[in-house]
Amino acid sequence: VQPSDWLFNGADVVRVQVVLRLQRDLEINTPGAALALQLLDEIASLQKQLKRFE
């Protein structure tokens, strides 16, 4: 598979943009950006759970 054959959905593009912004604005390295992305995902999941209880 060639890079020109790759397809990304909108959510994937947004995730890459978040990582790039973390690296650019906060000077976070790649492993740190990956961890931050995991934590942001966890926060979003917890927020969804909280909304179900409201």
UniProtKB/TrEMBL annotation:
- Record the organism: hydrothermal vent metagenome
- Pfam families assigned: MerR_2
Q: What is this protein called?
A: MerR family transcriptional regulator
